[in-house]
Amino acid sequence: MTASTAERVARRRAALRAAGLRPIQIWVPDRAAPGFAAEARRQSALIAAQPAPRAEDDAWEAAAMETLRDPG
Asked: Taking the CB of residue 28, how many other CB atoms lie within 10 A of it?
């Protein structure tokens, strides 16, 4: 007898939890929403108008990325 979809999903979720993972829910902007494109252009223009990162900023980012790569 085959397992129901709910049983398979429950087993899969239990296996993921046993592996140390947990589910999360993420809400993202609706690209089809009225005004999305205009707001995206507005935010992009604000980012583009920012000064270039300083060398100190690059060093902090590199250190952060190294920590993410090797947390131990």
From this structure: 5
Phi, psi at 33, each rounded to 5°: -70, 145
Region class of 20: left (phi > 0), else alpha (psi between -120 and 50), else beta: left
pLDDT tens for each residue of 15-40 = 999 999 999 999 999 999 999 999 99
Distance in angstroms (rounded) separating the CA atoms of residues 55 and 39: 30
Measure CA 19 to chain center: 20
For residues 23 and 13, the answer to whether their CB atoms sit within 8 Å is yes
Q: d(Cα 42, Cα 24) in Å, to the nearest integer?
A: 29
pTM for the predicted model, two decimal places: 0.46
